[in-house]
Write a structure and sequence with these properties.
The radius of gyration is 18 Å and the shape is globular. The protein has a single domain, classed as TIM Barrel (Alpha-Beta Barrel). A 7-stranded parallel sheet has the order 1-2-3-4-5-6-7. It contains 7 helices and 7 strands. By secondary structure, it is of the alpha/beta class.
């Protein structure tokens, strides 16, 4: 389904910079930090310089936008696979440049994902950017209970589509209220589920994925099963049980 990325739930990936700082246990085996280090980079951690890119890099989404316009169909862009758009140490001017790029590409739907949803209210521009989906990574119940309500408030204020990335899944997760089967709280529009990959992966029991998939069906949340725990994402995708091979997502507009 993806055009130029190995991430199954999007069409493109764009990174306004590389680099981040760990904020929770879900960051412990960060694939992006590992990849950066493998290339000789040192852009992760408090006070470390982030990697920035030149004009050619920033022109790529302009070409994607034109292709989507000609096709008459919106394309999805995950931002960012090698950073966190709400990073406290984002390079000066790069986040503002990103907002300008999003405004200039109306045929692209930008999937923003962060472990710092509390920063959305401060850093998102007040002007209407409706081609944004707001996401938060929630790797277990504690992070969901903390991050999802914050994300929801910001998204409701701006009438934006929401999504939760339950990856790497590090514990069971439920969107339910206090009474089983009756949800008293708003739920995200979309949930992505994925086990951790890599040599030091922490296994995700199939039961965790089965339970959250059932909740998504119950509450009308689009569900995307990305992968089981495995050495690589490709192997993880191949290990998805037949009953969990569900890949839904909201319509890009």
């Amino acid at each position: 389904m993806s055009k130029d990325t190995g991430i199954s739930w999007t069409d493109h990936t764009f990174n306004p910079w590389w680099g981040c700082t760990a904020v929770s246990a879900g960051c412990d085996h960060c694939y992006a930090e590992t990849f950066d280090s493998r290339l000789g980079g040192d852009h992760w951690g408090k006070g470390k310089p982030r990697r920035i890119f030149g004009e050619e890099h920033w022109q790529e989404p302009i070409a994607w936008n034109e292709a989507a316009r000609k096709a008459g169909k919106h394309a999805l862009v995950f931002c960012a696979s090698m950073a966190d758009v709400m990073d406290d140490e984002a390079p000066a001017g790069q986040r503002s440049r990103l907002w300008e790029l999003i405004a200039a590409t109306p045929y692209l739907t930008w999937q923003l994902l962060t472990k710092r949803p509390q920063r959305y209210a401060r850093w998102l521009p007040r002007e209407s950017l409706m081609n944004i989906w707001l996401g938060a990574t929630c790797e277990d119940q504690a992070t969901y209970d903390l991050r999802w309500p914050i994300l929801r408030r910001v998204a409701d204020d701006r009438d934006l589509t929401t999504f939760v990335s339950y990856e790497p899944a590090m514990g069971p997760l439920s969107m339910s209220g206090p009474v089983p089967g009756i949800n008293h709280f708003p739920v995200p529009d979309w949930l992505i589920c994925g086990g951790e990959t890599g040599d030091h992966r922490r296994p995700m029991p199939t039961e965790w994925a089965t339970a959250i998939a059932a909740e998504c069906a119950l509450y009308g949340v689009k569900f995307w099963m990305k992968q089981m725990s495995a050495r690589t994402p490709v192997l993880g995708a191949a290990l998805i049980p037949a009953g969990l091979l569900i890949r839904q997502r909201p319509e890009a507009e």
